Amino acid sequence: RTDPPAVNGWGFTFASTRFIPAEIAGLTAADVPRLKLKWAFAYPGATRARSQPMVAAGSVFVGSQHGRMYALDLETGCMRWSFAADAEVRSAVSVSDWTDGADARVFFGDFKANVYA
Fold first, then answer.
1. pLDDT (tens digit, 9 = 90+) per residue, 39-85?
2. Counted domains in the chain
3. Where residue 60 sits, what CATH number does that domain have?
4. Least confident of 14-18, 19-23, 25-29
5. Which of 37, 46, 75, 87 could form a disulfide with 112 if both were Cys (CB 3.0 to 4.6 A apart)?
6. N- to C-terminal Cα distance for the chain?
7. 77-57-1 Cα angle (round to 5)
8. 79 within a domain of the structure (yes/no)
9. Which residues are CB-neighbours of 56 under 8 A, at least 6 positions away?
10. Domain boundaries, position 30
11. pLDDT of res. 81
12. Is there a domain that residue 7 lies in?
């Protein structure tokens, strides 16, 4: 499978569950022992992420404890861009629905209740 499952927000269902069935994920429990680390990302000046990562359009979007939102290349882990929010990013990340990608938006909130797009 080349495209990861779309989990647009905090959970996979309206009940906010995070379980993704094997037929959607393309991964079963039997595959887990064979997994290998593909890449790692060190958060500059931070030790953790408190937001759930979001995968869309070939990027991994994740926020940090120091208030930065990062867009990382899905294949390499290299940073595509980052954005400084006013506070720690602790919300789910959502990506707008689009057809050609030209008008894509990433939505998230920070600890001070600001919402960004």
1. 999 988 888 887 888 888 889 999 998 999 999 999 999 999 999 99
2. 1
3. 2.40.128.630
4. 14-18
5. 87
6. 29
7. 80
8. yes
9. 6, 8, 95, 104
10. 22-116
11. 95
12. no
